[in-house]
Design goal:
Blueprint lengths: L2 H25 L3 H8 L2 H5 L7 H13 L1 H18 L2 H18 L5 H8 L8 H4 L15
Helix pairs in contact: 1-2, 1-5, 4-5, 5-6
C-alpha cells in the first residue's frame, strides 16, 4: 500500500470513532457533548499545519474532553509522520512506539502520557523529535 491509502484508512477509522463517540453522547442525552463533536470532523481530518484557529481550538477541546477520540487522532498523525521521515528514522520511531505500547499496557505513567502529547498539534515537527527514543524525550507535565 502506498502512503496516501494508508493515511486514508487511518482517517476513515478515525471518522468511525468520531461517529461512535457522537452517537454515544446523543444516546446518553449529552446534547452539548454531541454538538461539540458534530463540528470536529474537519479538524480531525486536516493536517495540523493546515488547521484554522477555530479547528485548533476544537482539537484542544477534544484532547481535554475525549481521550479515545484524541488518541485516534494522534495515531493518524503518527502514521502521517512516519511517511515523512527518512527510512531509518521511521524505523526508530516505530520501534519506540511499539516498545512504548508493550510497556504502557499495564500502567500509564506521566512520562508515557507526555510522550503521547509530544506528537500533538503544536508540538515540534517530526524531524526534530522522531529520532529521539521515548526515554530521551523530555517529560512535560500535563493536567489531568
Amino acid at each position: 500500500m502506498d502512503p496516501f491509502h494508508v493515511i486514508q484508512l487511518a482517517t476513515d477509522a478515525l471518522d468511525e470513532i468520531r461517529r461512535e463517540v457522537w452517537n454515544q453522547a446523543r444516546q446518553a442525552g449529552q446534547t452539548q457533548a454531541a454538538r461539540d463533536l458534530k463540528g470536529a470532523r474537519f479538524a480531525l481530518w486536516k493536517n495540523p499545519e493546515n488547521l484554522t484557529e477555530r479547528q485548533q481550538t476544537k482539537l484542544s477541546e477534544i484532547e481535554r474532553t475525549n481521550k479515545p477520540l484524541f488518541r485516534a487522532y494522534i495515531l493518524k498523525e503518527h502514521l502521517r509522520q512516519i511517511y515523512r521521515l527518512p527510512a531509518t528514522q521511521a524505523i526508530e520511531m516505530l520501534d519506540a512506539w511499539i516498545g512504548w505500547r508493550a510497556t504502557a499496557g499495564s500502567s500509564r505513567s506521566s512520562s508515557s502520557r507526555a510522550r503521547c502529547a509530544s506528537s500533538a498539534p503544536g508540538s515540534s515537527p517530526p524531524s526534530s523529535t522522531a529520532s529521539q527514543t521515548p526515554a530521551s524525550k523530555p517529560s512535560t507535565p500535563r493536567s489531568g
